[in-house]
Write a structure and sequence with these properties.
By secondary structure, the protein is α+β, with helices and mostly antiparallel strands. The protein has 2 domains: 5-132, 2-Layer Sandwich (TATA-Binding Protein), CATH 3.30.310; 156-310, no CATH class. 27% of the residues lie in helices and 22% in strands. The chain has 10 helices and 16 strands. Strand 12 and strand 13 form a beta hairpin. 30% of the residues are buried. It binds zinc ion (2 copies).
């Protein structure tokens, strides 16, 4: 910050001097080589124990702080204003007042209109810093589109980049697999998946293999308008009761304890491959929601049965 902060005291529209004793009391201890016994130098350097620095110039009527760094320098500046009844004028942002009463003493209408009162309890370097560089509001992300066959879990990440397909900043980007010859290089938003726009535009799908027979319309919904499953092998979309099942998310042994029906389905699958009971048990125990091998947990949309698939190695 090389533009200066000014600390000054206004009365009836004009600056009036601050008490020199107060200036010395607040700034002496952080002045490099100290302040002289009487009077104030034309300019001097501050250094605080957090490594912060500033150059100060001016006189008792207006002290300017330039090249300001560090919270403690701002604390000193705030303390100076507090002790002298001055206001702080940051390089950007409104004049900071300690009392509403001080507003009418400011010299012009614009300053008066925009000045901000920081209550005495909040009067600190931190408050000054926030007034100059307001903390960004946590971004509010729009609700995700509703997918009939996917809970949405783990398929998107927050993003402030525009979607490569619709060009809009939707607050989310799809992070799952994309299958096709012309996979776009940028991120696709989940709305372009839900509305089928991305599939149509790029000729891609987001899922590849459906495990079982479902009506064509269901297959298209799952392949073209449903987020895919991240997996290091080729994942399968499970079906039940003649419909695609809903994907609930990745699951490990811990998560699957609550879904014995899904564990049974996995055990049957392993059994079909001629694995020994010991090998199956060891495999099921090793399942991890965040690491290989992972199970993919589904629920039948019709009967509620839980199902799971895994990358059987
Ligand atoms: Zn989009
Ligand atoms: Zn079912």
């Amino acid at each position: 910050m090389s533009h200066p902060f000014h600390v000054l005291k206004f009365r009836d529209g004009a600056p009036v001097p601050m008490k020199e004793e107060a200036i010395r009391a607040v700034l002496s201890s952080v002045t490099v080589d100290g302040l002289p016994g009487r009077g104030l130098p034309e300019w001097w350097n501050l250094r605080t124990r957090d490594g912060g620095e500033a150059e100060v110039y001016g006189d008792a009527t207006c002290l300017s702080f330039t090249h300001v760094s560090g919270r403690l320098v701002l604390d000193r500046m705030a303390e100076l204003a507090r002790r002298t009844g001055a206001v702080v004028m940051p390089p950007d942002g409104p004049v900071l007042l300690q009392r509403e009463h001080d507003r009418r003493h400011l010299p012009d209408g614009d300053l008066r209109a925009h000045a901000v009162v920081l209550p005495p309890a909040a009067w600190s370097g931190r408050a000054v810093e926030q007034a100059v560089r307001p903390l960004p509001e946590p971004p509010r992300r729009p609700a995700l589109p509703r997918f009939a066959y996917h809970s949405g879990a783990g398929a998107v990440a927050p993003s402030d980049e525009p979607c490569v397909c619709c060009g809009q900043v939707r607050g989310w980007v799809y992070t799952g697999p994309v299958y096709g010859a012309e996979v776009p290089s940028g991120g696709i938003c989940p709305y372009c998946i839900a509305f089928g726009k991305a599939a149509e535009r790029y000729g891609v799908t987001f899922n590849d293999v459906i495990d079982g027979e479902v009506p064509d319309e269901v297959a298209r919904e799952i392949l073209e308008r449903t987020p895919g499953i991240r997996s290091w092998q080729s994942p399968r979309w499970l079906t039940h009761c003649g419909d695609g099942a809903e994907f609930l998310g990745p699951a490990g042994a811990e998560e699957l304890r609550h879904f014995p029906d899904a564990v049974e389905a996995l055990r049957r699958k392993c059994g079909e491959w001629g694995w020994s009971a010991e090998r199956v048990d060891a495999y099921l125990r090793a399942l991890d929601a965040d690491d290989q091998p992972t199970a993919h947990l589904f629920r039948c949309r019709a009967c509620g049965t839980h199902l799971a698939w895994s990358d059987f190695t």
